[in-house]
Amino acid sequence: MAHRRAILFMIFVMMFSFLLTIVFGILFAQGILEVEIIMSPWFIIIFQVLSFLLPLAIWLGIHREKLNVHLPHMRLGSVNIICIVGLSLLLQPAMMVVSGLTAIFFPNQVSEMVMGMADYPYLLLIIAVAVTPAICEEVVFRGYMQKKYENKSFWTMAISTGFFFGVIHFNPQQFFYAFVMGIIFAYMVHATRSIRAAVISHFIMNASQVSLLWFTVRMTQFMEEQPDFFPEAYSAQPSDAEMIAAFALLGFIAIFSTIAAVILFNFFAKHNKQRIAEYEAKHIEETPENPPEELELQESKLRGRLIDGALILVIVSLYVIFIFVI
Fold first, then answer.
1. N or C: which terminal CB in the chain sees fewer CB atoms within 10 Å?
2. Tell me, what's the pLDDT at 108?
3. How far is it, in rounded angstroms, from Cα 280 to Cα 219?
């Protein structure tokens, strides 16, 4: 079945990333790769291409598939672009709350990484953390993988690809955040029939986070370099009470921004309803003239679910190994 090939591809990508991490670890241990190289935007760009586009190219070559047939490319239109940008910005406070809650239990490695790269040019950081992931990851997950689930229900497709999207980050702190956003990206592509919808939203999500962290670090550095104009209190680390107050304010903002996002989301769904109907009318598949017997069909579905369950267990096992061993 088509969706099973997506699951097998996910295992292939995880194993590829696993081996790639080991290779880079060996190069680092041998002194070939230095910390300055690993903690640079250039390394992120290279790692993204090697982790996603290279295994996808190998997989497509093995199975003799073409990438373009897996990338929905209907024209978005100005209304959809405005809706996607608006939704991406309005959902940010809620996603920041989710990220903050998970950071209580797991370290926020992404924020630490970006803050450590604040001395690099802003545009280079945006390319590394926003442009490259938006293209590489969306081509894989909302392109190839989502296409393989087109014969399944929307929720099966969205939850499955969202789960894969969370797992591939190999970071417990990012998992739930990425899982939720994966479902949202899946709907955007499903509704618009365009991979560009997810690429734009993914870019805005990452770029806004990177921009906030980059400008915060730069502003802090500027204030520390100007002690005559900025009292020491302004450059000191915030207290627990101040952190709780800031988080509560963010949560308050998230409530209203999420409500606005829901309203905009309903408009977005209605706007694309007609486009979906027209698209499906052109691409509807004919049902087989001789469907299999009911008992045979049930047995086939049961075997398929058992196989799918076993493959998902393999993915979870690889995830646990990567997190706790690597």
1. C
2. 73
3. 51
Question: Which residues does residue 194 pair with via DSSP β-bridges, in sequence order?
Answer: 73
Structure tokens at 13: 């990508």
Sign of the torsion formed by the C-alpha atoms of 190, 191, 193 and 197: negative
Distance CA 231, CA 289 (A): 79
Q: In the structure encoding, which two tokens stand for residue 27, read together?
A: 């190069």
- In this prediction, residue 287 carries a pLDDT of 45
- Which amino acid is it at 201? S
In 3-state terms, what secondary structure has residue 73? Answer: strand
Return the biggest CA–CA distance within the chain: 84
The alpha helices in 30-169, defined as continuous H runs, are: 35-38, 41-48, 54-63, 78-90, 92-103, 109-116, 122-126, 132-138, 146-148, 154-167
pTM: 0.86
315 vs 10, 11, 23, 156, CA distance in Å?
A: 8, 6, 21, 17
From CA 298, how far away is CA 79, in angstroms rounded? 44
Q: What is the DSSP letter of 230?
A: S
Number of CB atoms found within 10 A of residue 324's CB: 7
- Report pLDDT for 110: 76
Phi, psi of 73 (to 5 degrees): -135, 30
Strands (E) in 153-204, as ranges, are none
* pLDDT score, position 237: 60
User: Residue 320: how many CB atoms within 10 A of its CB?
Assistant: 10
Main-chain phi, psi angles of 165, to 5 degrees: -65, -40
